[in-house]
Amino acid sequence: MAAASGSDLSSEMEVDAFRRLFPLSFHERHLLKSIRPDGRTLGKARDTIISVGAVTSANGSALTKIGCTTMLAAIKLEVMTPTVESPDEGCIAIDFHMPPICSPIVRPGRPAEAAPVVAKQLSGTILSSGMIDLKELSLVSGKAAWMAYLDIYCLDADGSLFDAALLSAVAAFSHLQIPVVSLNDEGRIVLISEDNGGGKLEKEPVNKEKRKLKLATIPLSLTCILHKNYILADPTAEEESIMETLVTVVLDSSSQLVSLYKPGGPVLAQTSAIQDCVALTRQRLKELQKILNEAISDMEVD
Amino acid sequence: MEYVNPEGLRLDGRRPLEMRQLRAEIGVVARADGSAVFEMGNTKVIAAIYGPREVQNKSQQINDQAVVRCEYSMANFSTGDRMRKPKHDRRSTEISLVIRQTMEACILTHLMPRSQIDIFVQVLQADGGTRSACINAATLALADAGIPMRDLVTSCAAGYLNTTPLLDLNYVEDSAGGPDVTVGILPKLDKVTLLQMDAKLPLDTFETVMQLAIEGCKAVANYIREILLENTKQLEFRRGV
């Protein structure tokens, strides 16, 4: 019905009005020609930019943009006592925020629905992918270990929030540098700042130099939308709001499946559709790995 | 502790009457109606404007003018130690109120009745002067959104340490316990809209410090005008005018 009335009026109104009033038929007309309103083909993701070291006061940070979706991730390390069950392991706390600046639908007092969902997904993916060995975050067995607080802020929400958030989390961990600390006389861990490190070094440093974390594998993801027989990679917020069936695939650096997420939705997917999504993700993985490596090596040159 | 050394240099190498480096950019949040990033030294703030749009809470709708709402929040990683409660603590609520009232005074609200203008400010890095940076960012963002205003609002802070008036305090100088005077002005109309100070200060010293802050505000205003002009030239160029 809506499509029929849409096509009757389409010759009589402006493109922008048609886009607002009949968004589904607007997009479907584009899909018939295998293209999307912003000119991309169905399987192509938007331009991605990664910049590490954006927040100077944090131990590791990264700013990523996929199209207009912008995420700022920062990691702060604090010392804590490890639990009795795992005395040699540190801990990671992941938090995802969507402040009201990111989108017109988020209001103060009514946080976005997507925020805790993405936070939980991220937590689950990062911890279960085995990217970080928690033993690397240990300082003194049984007494002190690092607690890494990862905070990701969405500065502009234009679809594919999980992809951008995971990318920025991974980039921030790649950039993370563990500071040099030592144990003082009261048994407390004390930060050694670079200026007084030379003079009064009666305290033995617990770790010799600033070091980076060893990442076993890097999980990267792609979100696709299923609509009738089409698979659209990397949707914008507009596409996500009209066509609600999302599939998120997370692969690690050896192209093994880390996570597959399809939270319901009006379209039921055949196995072939899921396999196509995984194939698209595999392609995207190569692009992302290249961009990530460039961003990190740019930082190291500085 | 010495905040101004005998040669007259501050902790970060500035002169007492020197502001930190300013940097601003407009149109950074694509989904917002207007947005801006404003940096004063290491303090980095992002502001986004949504509006004029329909009032979300009908009971707050005013029939002859627009409702202005503001929320100030700091990112968890913005300060030296990680913040536990970045949003609804007392300081954030107070600053939200201050920014709202400052901007409300200069927006021509009677031109947009029964609508709502939302000003959201997020502090990404805090190194003193966040209040001023937020007001400057909000002004730029409002201009980017095309919301009619009486004049720009610019803000700057000044203090008094080691018997020297200092312009644009950073975090270390701010926490020294000396007076901190924050001033917000409408530069063309030459009117003061915001004036806050905590600490004791004799009246004549206060006059000097306030004048210094006003000079700082005027310098910020010049910079903001340059940025807006540059932005307009870019828009003209893109339209092929």
TrEMBL record, chain A:
Ranges where the Exoribonuclease phosphorolytic domain occurs: 45-179, 218-280
Pfam families, sorted: RNase_PH, RNase_PH_C
Compartments in which it is found: Cytoplasm; Nucleus, Nucleolus
Keywords (A to Z) from UniProt: Cytoplasm, Exosome, Nucleus, RNA-binding, rRNA processing
GO BP annotation list: exonucleolytic trimming to generate mature 3'-end of 5.8S rRNA from tricistronic rRNA transcript (SSU-rRNA, 5.8S rRNA, LSU-rRNA); nuclear mRNA surveillance; nuclear polyadenylation-dependent rRNA catabolic process; rRNA catabolic process; TRAMP-dependent tRNA surveillance pathway; U1 snRNA 3'-end processing; U4 snRNA 3'-end processing; U5 snRNA 3'-end processing
Source taxon at top rank: Eukaryota
Record bears the keyword Calcium: no
GO molecular function, one term: mRNA 3'-UTR AU-rich region binding
Keyword Chloroplast annotated: no
InterPro entries in UniProt: ExoRNase_PH_dom1, ExoRNase_PH_dom2, ExoRNase_PH_dom2_sf, Exosome_comp_Rrp42_subfam, PNPase/RNase_PH_dom_sf, Ribosomal_Su5_D2-typ_SF, Rrp43
Cellular component aspect of the GO annotation: cytoplasmic exosome (RNase complex); nuclear exosome (RNase complex); nucleolus
PANTHER family linked to this entry: EXOSOME COMPLEX COMPONENT RRP43 (PTHR11097:SF9), EXOSOME COMPLEX EXONUCLEASE RIBOSOMAL RNA PROCESSING PROTEIN (PTHR11097)
Protein family: Belongs to the RNase PH family.
UniProt protein name: Ribosomal RNA-processing protein 43
Origin species: Coffea arabica (Arabian coffee)
Lineage: Eukaryota, Viridiplantae, Streptophyta, Embryophyta, Tracheophyta
UniProtKB/TrEMBL annotation, chain B:
CC terms in the record's Gene Ontology section: cytoplasmic exosome (RNase complex); nuclear exosome (RNase complex); nucleolus
GO biological process: nuclear mRNA surveillance; poly(A)-dependent snoRNA 3'-end processing; rRNA catabolic process; U4 snRNA 3'-end processing
Main location: cytoplasm
Alphabetized InterPro entries for the sequence: ExoRNase_PH_dom1, ExoRNase_PH_dom2, ExoRNase_PH_dom2_sf, PNPase/RNase_PH_dom_sf, Ribosomal_Su5_D2-typ_SF, RNase_PH
Family from the record: Belongs to the RNase PH family.
Location(s) in or outside the cell: Cytoplasm; Nucleus, Nucleolus
Any Pfam family: RNase_PH_C
Record-given protein name: Uncharacterized protein
Keywords, sorted A to Z: Cytoplasm, Exosome
Record GO terms (molecular function): RNA binding
Matches recorded under PANTHER family: EXOSOME COMPLEX COMPONENT, EXOSOME COMPLEX COMPONENT RRP41
The Exoribonuclease phosphorolytic domain, residue ranges: 18-148, 151-216
